[in-house]
Amino acid sequence: MYPNSAIDNTISTPNSLSDSKEKRNLYLFSMGKAVSLFGTYIYNFAVSLYILKITGSGTSFALSILLGTLPRVILSPIAGSVSDRVNRKKMIVLLDIMSGVTVLLLFLQSILFGIHIPFIYLTTFILSGISTFFNNCFLSALPRLVSDKSLVKINSYNRAIDSGSSILGPVLAGMVFGFVSLDLFLFINGISFILSALSELFIDFDFNISNEEGKPSESMSLRVIWKDANEVITFIKGNPILSLILPFSMTFNFLISASLTVILPFQINTVLGLSSAEYGIVEGAFSVGMLTAALLIGRLPEKNKKRRGLAIGLVGMGISLMIMGAPGFPIFNQLSKVTIFIVYVVMAVIFAFFLLYIDLPLGVLMQRSIPGTMLGRVMGIIGTLASSLIPIGIILAGLTLEIIPAYLIFIITGLYFIVSASILYTHKAMKEY
Fold first, then answer.
1. Residue 156 and residue 266: Cα distance in Å, rounded?
2. Whole-prediction pTM value?
3. E strand or H helix at 412, and its extent?
4. Which of 368, 376, 410 is nearest to 264 (CA)?
5. What CATH number did the domain enclosing 58 receive?
6. Do 281 and 346 belong to one domain?
7. Which among 29, 311, 40 is positioned nearest to 153, based on CA atoms?
8. Largest CA distance in the chain
9. pLDDT-derived band of residue 210, with 50, 70 and 90 as boundaries?
10. What pLDDT, on a 0 to 100 scale, did the predictor assign at position 346?
11. What is the pLDDT of residues 31-87, one digit of tens each?
12. Which of 201 and 303 is assigned the larger pLDDT?
């Protein structure tokens, strides 16, 4: 109305208000997720160190890790069904408050009666269960926090926080464990969850709900959970892209968990004779690669056609795995350990970069392909399947190492990734992707 007037600069247009809300959502989401996730990582690592120090038992240490992972496998489908039936904002805030209260109760128990291992186990189990619901609910809410054009960006931030937490969490936990009493750490950790919940109160969870349908009205029960699972399977079968992508995705998770959890440390430590410290640096390089990819992809414009990028990413992962296997060949026996170490650090960064290079677009594809009222349930089922495949992959990898040399397993796995890239690139369901 006043195209040449100075007053026009002071009037907030709908677009500027929308952009401002979206930036606020991005900032508050990142801050809340980072505080909550760092709190979880630091707690799990510091408490595990404490248990190992007090008991000196590898079994007790392993039990604490098991109690931290088991709820994710069991509760993911339930978390998915619940997150599609509740107010996600209220649930996320409540879950962070519950985490804070749980840790603060352990703090009070420690102050009044002294710390006891069974209470640590119980707290770890409860926090893991809460975290399963929290992560599923936040992940299914991401498409509602920003506009469609910013979906890649918020997913990139999400993965950057995940990777950054995995890198810095153990480091901070080690510092906390070395310089701060366990009681003070528990108090700070509990308060951090409460502060995270306060920041989440200001997130607009209804920023982008144009495609949202009515919420299911059924109350939660085992029958409803079973019905939800069947609906998810039917939905996936009826979606050409998801029915193609998910089997490959599950296979990739299976092979990656087996390769990186069992075969890689066996190859590096047992076959090639590198030190535990060097292996630890290689492990950290994976997180560095993922963090780099997350930060870079979040700043790049989103491409309309992602099929080529998916193929490039899979080929890059396949070649990286094959190179990881190469030092195990007898013809490379003359390579120095320094050279081998450098090769593995570089390949770890490259592999992780390509992993996230394809994982982020695939995640965005699923978020766009799944209705908002089903997103939590689909992600819950996928999370359960992915988590359940990890121990199977680990067991089979151990058995396979008794038969096939580690370097050949890397070569075979790498070739599978390359062949998969060709299949996915040429499949008719991917022509429009």
1. 32
2. 0.68
3. helix 406-426
4. 410
5. 1.20.1250.20
6. yes
7. 29
8. 79
9. low
10. 94
11. 888 887 777 777 777 777 778 778 776 667 667 767 777 787 788 778 877 887 788
12. 201
User: Could you tell me if residue 219 is inside a domain?
Assistant: no
Both tokens of 402, joined, read 């008794």
Residue 357: domain span:
229-430
Q: Which two tokens stand for residue 136?
A: 């599923």
Sign, CA dihedral 261-266-248-314, equals positive
For the chain, what is the domain count? Answer: 2
Q: Other C-beta atoms within 10 Å of 361: how many?
A: 21
Give the pLDDT mean for 199-211.
Answer: 81
How far apart, in Å, do the first and last CA atoms of the chain sit? Answer: 42
Inter-residue contact 192 to 128 (CB < 8 Å): no
More confident: 152 or 413: 413
In the predicted model, what is the mean pLDDT of residues 212-223? Answer: 54
- Tokens representing residue 75 in the block: 């509760």
Residue 99: both structure tokens together: 């985490």
Residue 4 lies in a domain: no
> Same domain for 242 and 299?
yes
Using a 10 angstrom Cβ sphere, with 0-12 exposed, 13-18 middle and 19 or more buried, the burial of residue 18 is middle
> For the chain, how big is the Rg over CA atoms in Å?
23
Contact partners, residue 121, CB within 8 Å, separation at least 6: 63, 64, 67
Coil, strand, or helix at residue 1?
coil
Confidence tier at 5 by pLDDT (50, 70, 90): very low
Mean pLDDT of 173-187: 76
